[in-house]
## 1
Amino acid sequence: MDLSLTPQETKFRDGLRAWLQANVPSDWESGRNEDEMLERFNFLRVWQKKVYEAGWAGISWPKEYGGRGATLMEQVIFVEEMARAGAPPLANTLGLSLVGPTIINVGTDAQKKRYLQKILNADEIWCQGFSEPNAGSDLAGVRTEARLDGDHYIINGQKVWNSYGWVADWCALVTRSDPQSQKHDGLTYILVDMKSPGVDVRPLRQMTGESEFCELFFHNVRVPVENVLGKVGQGWKVALGTLAHERATLGSGMQIVFKRQFDRLVELSRSVTRNGRPASEDPVIRQKLAQSYAEIEIMRLNQMRAITRLSQSGLPGPEGSIQKIFWSELNQRFQQIATEVLGPYAQLTAGNGHAIDDGQWAYSYLRTRGNTIEAGTSEIQRNIVGHFVLGLPKSY
Ligand SMILES: Cc1cc2nc3c(=O)[nH]c(=O)nc-3n(C[C@H](O)[C@H](O)[C@H](O)COP(=O)(O)OP(=O)(O)OC[C@H]3O[C@@H](n4cnc5c(N)ncnc54)[C@H](O)[C@@H]3O)c2cc1C
């Protein structure tokens, strides 16, 4: 892995840096009240459109579908510069990191043309319908049915823990198209228009106070056969590709958030007092902050290593699971340290007049609990590393 930038990469970085300097909105971080969710989301959507129009969205996506056609290394630089500039994240998280790359890998030309550009410019927001009440870690248990009826599939069933379901225009859905099939056979990956009659979205309230994810119910939803992504009955293979992208790349977006929060916490540690003096002078706090800094650096370097490998092989491998374990557990440790630095202030939620950063810290602490569950639990990631990286026998 070569960490020095080529002249082309330096030029790319400088151009992006200048654009961000001129365009990143100041003071954009708003509170997390339930009633602010839509407003916040719409703000991030407008921001993504602006990034797209300036030519910075989909850095490594093909040019003919609205991307920049640049290298994965330039994609890494993009993430780093966004973090450095304190820029807001892009709204269409799942479209950009999961669905788009899956369509690029296995979609038909017509599907690429139909969907990719609208993912990049945030015209169409995506969600991911994989998990069901009895199929989370083990997607082999998927029961949502897709029955062929002429040139349509009729979908019936239920999904759960569906992030962005409340704002999504489209859903990447894993269904069982062969009712006789068992386990991973007979699954089909279908792109479903969330405005189709028979789709019912019910938000679920989380301990953060938000309703970020939803239950989805499908009642006789008609979906044209051309919306099948990959081959009929090969949905497991397609879904594995999506999951590998999720594990390998979701962390790169997280890095922006972690770095910004870390810098802010260091700043706060100088003004918040602990035992009568600034927290930054407390030897234990200093140790913990330094440890967090080291871990975020490790995450950054591992991300570069993963991207280097991805640029050589074209597809993310099981190593993505190592990164997923690392960033999710790192974030839980980091948010715990934040509560120690901020003391009682860390418990004040949005809307409380005394809350630091409008309750962002209480929100983040609670939200990190889901990090070791979403995109596959830590136990499942360790199983993948044990089996596919270390070659140990299967655990189940
Ligand atoms: C914030 C958040 C966002 C999410 N967003 C989405 C989304 O957008 N779309 C979507 O489809 N899903 C989403 N999910 C769901 C997520 O993918 C599942 O919750 C996850 O895969 C675990 O499935 P489960 O909840 O059914 O738990 P289960 O699979 O029932 O697991 C329960 C426990 O058993 C352990 N376990 C299970 N199998 C094994 C094994 N073989 N070996 C060792 N331990 C095991 C698990 O680690 C876990 O601790 C989201 C979840 C969260 C928390």
Note: The pocket of flavin-adenine dinucleotide is lined by residues 127-131, 136-137, 161-163, 213, 370, 373-374, 376-377, 379-380, 383, 395-396 (CB under 6 Å).
## 2
Amino acid sequence: MNETNPQNLVAKTWTGPLEPPQSISSAADVVIIGGGIIGVSTAWFLAKQGIDVVVCEKGHIAGEQSGRNWGWVRQQGRDTREMPMIVESMRIWRGLEDEIGEDVGYTEHGVFYAATTDEQMNEYAQRIDVADEFGVGTRMIDANELAKHVPGGTGNWKGALYTASDGRAEPHKATSAIARAAVSKGAKILTSTAVRGIETAAGQVSSVVTEHGAIKTSTVLCAAGAWTSMFCRSLGITVPQLKVRGTVARTAPSASVLDGNLYDDRIGIRRRQDGGYTVALGTYLDHPITPSTFRFGLKYLRAFLMDMESVRVSIGREFTEEWSAPKTWSLDAESPFEKTRVLDPKPNQSVLKSIRHNVDNVFPQLAGVEIVESWAGMIETTPDIIPVIEQTESLRGFHIATGFNGHGFGIGPGAGKAIAGLLSGNDSGIDLKEFRLSRFFDGTLIRPQAGV
Ligand SMILES: Cc1cc2nc3c(=O)[nH]c(=O)nc-3n(C[C@H](O)[C@H](O)[C@H](O)COP(=O)(O)OP(=O)(O)OC[C@H]3O[C@@H](n4cnc5c(N)ncnc54)[C@H](O)[C@@H]3O)c2cc1C
């Protein structure tokens, strides 16, 4: 391993303390469960308002999805309901490095959804109306224009859906940098600190119980990513959530074959700040069947039909693991969150082989380039592929922000601002009503518009 080409960036996302905290706060205005991009961005915006906030993370900052994603920051191809939040998020990303004084690798070189058939060209063209409504500048380009942007590609493309103002950032840097920015504004970040549960008084949150003791508070945000459904279930709150596993690889620095982010049926690829590429298969996600698949499956029917080509269903040890996991637990003994400090699924080896094959074929100049690191991440999905953000109706003071599906990294800072507004009562200007949890239970038509 050398410094310019380290082999474990995914495992090294946080340069703060990894050991349990010496002490925890006895009280806070707000306690956030989860140190992913959603939790720390919310903490940053709260701390900027002078609110006393503590983030509890069972493992390390960005240890799960927020440090394992592709690094795409995109407006293109989004659900209409997410557009106001992502537009605001882009504004924040553009000024982020100046504001926090840290490098997060943010740059805008466009996103391309490359089409290999006329049908795909037509399908992508339908996305332009939504983008126009929000002034995003998404347009269709032909094969000649695409070739100028992607000189090293031999994908037989007809053209692409293209948004020049879309970008990327480095997941192993961004969330930790935002966490440090939050700390500099007064937030407390506790790593190796699992939250076991909540104590209540007269239907109102009264404290958060961590493995190191309780923190008195009347306001909690559960931003626990893939763990949210389990955590909420222990409180009697049902959050439909299914997980899909994405396998990703990172190459050594190599020839410049494109400068933006490109996606097609075979490959999802973006240039990295270190001169390498983050690559995955364009359309491949594993869904390990669990009891939740049966519990929530019907609600996911439309999402499944939309993403049918991408999702491969299998059954393995995940079924028995979830089956035998406790639904509730005592708050003064080890909880499931301490047992899995960092959810670190194994990458799918056959997907890694296909990634190798597709990189070599679609980008011949990269043929044989060393794959320096590979990993997987569990993406949490909702039935309509947009998040849940709300103050719950059944437990006063308890809030949920989850279900960012496969596109929560880019929207993270904007979501953090909106959620901080919800928690503090200071209007962020972003309407959250489309994200209420009750939409899954009150007869609202579940309408996914965009894939994971
Ligand atoms: C392979 C892959 C590719 C992706 N590509 C992209 C992309 O290119 N662009 C994009 O925008 N998005 C992408 N995403 C999605 C994006 O990464 C997520 O939507 C986003 O990171 C979610 O952030 P989060 O903070 O909600 O969750 P997470 O980052 O998962 O954070 C949740 C945290 O909560 C902690 N936690 C859970 N329970 C407890 C507890 N009881 N006590 C204390 N801590 C707890 C966990 O340890 C975890 O660190 C991708 C995701 C994956 C996995």
Note: DSSP finds 14 helices and 21 strands in the chain.
## 3
Amino acid sequence: MMLTNKVAVIYGAGGAIGSAVARAFAREGARVFLTGRERASVEAVARDIVSAGGSAEAAEVDALDERAIDRHLQSAIDEAGRVDISFNAIGIPDRRILGVPLIDLDVELFSLPIATYTTSYFLTARLAARRMIANKSGVIMTVTALHSRTGIPLVGGYSPSMAAKEALTRALSAELAPHGIRVVGLRPYAMPETRTIAEAFDARAKTLGITWEQWQDVLASRTHARRLMTLEEMANAAAFIASDRASGMTGTTMNLTMGCLDD
Ligand SMILES: NC(=O)c1ccc[n+]([C@@H]2O[C@H](COP(=O)([O-])OP(=O)(O)OC[C@H]3O[C@@H](n4cnc5c(N)ncnc54)[C@H](OP(=O)(O)O)[C@@H]3O)[C@@H](O)[C@H]2O)c1
């Protein structure tokens, strides 16, 4: 197992990516501390992990609330002795931020994803890093999307928010890698099992005039493999990056777009 004896904290762990990553980390032997805005959804994921033989605890933490993040991290460290991995997987509902042309978009809605995603990543990363520095080891991770690197219409402030997170990954790494802390992002394309992709389709359904199945085919046709990645495949890549086997990786975002986006 790649993550034996590692302690991981996951933000947005009730969501599609957060819960898949939590399961993969636990399968690889990590003790996982799951957090989310809503206790019920993270508790359900923790129960699943425990019944599969893993070690998981759930807590209600708003990943935009610095004090709540700090208190929770301290309680995880009091219990487990250390934190090795911080993974920020929060996502805000796309229906609030997609579907409106930039020339018609309210400035508050334009700013919402930029402020939310960058602030949450900044807070969770730096509070974990302050603890990891003492151990001279740790991995800070998050997730972005191909919007960071290519122009896509009707996504408002989402593209700049993803580009900003990737820039923050590089900046965090430049400051933290000398202390033994790696900072690495994941950039998956579209995983159709998730509500994020269902909502992205809803926002375009009328304009495109195609069905959900046809839209998945269109997305898949842009990859080299002519298929979309599963959540499990994405989570397996996350577990590898979080492990010591990826000790040479920092300051970068792993391109998981299956050829859809060139490096
Ligand atoms: N799904 C994909 O195929 C895909 C591909 C590329 C990139 N991404 C990106 O990856 C991220 C996660 O996507 P996802 O599909 O896993 O989304 P998701 O299923 O909607 O999960 C996001 C989770 O974040 C939680 N959350 C939101 N704000 C929070 C906060 N302030 N504090 C704590 N938790 C918070 C949500 O809780 P609530 O339920 O309470 O809102 C939800 O459980 C998003 O940025 C998304 O754009 C997704």
Note: Residues 11-12, 14-18, 36-38, 41, 62-64, 89-92, 120, 143, 145, 188, 190-191, 194-197 surround NAP (CB under 6 Å).
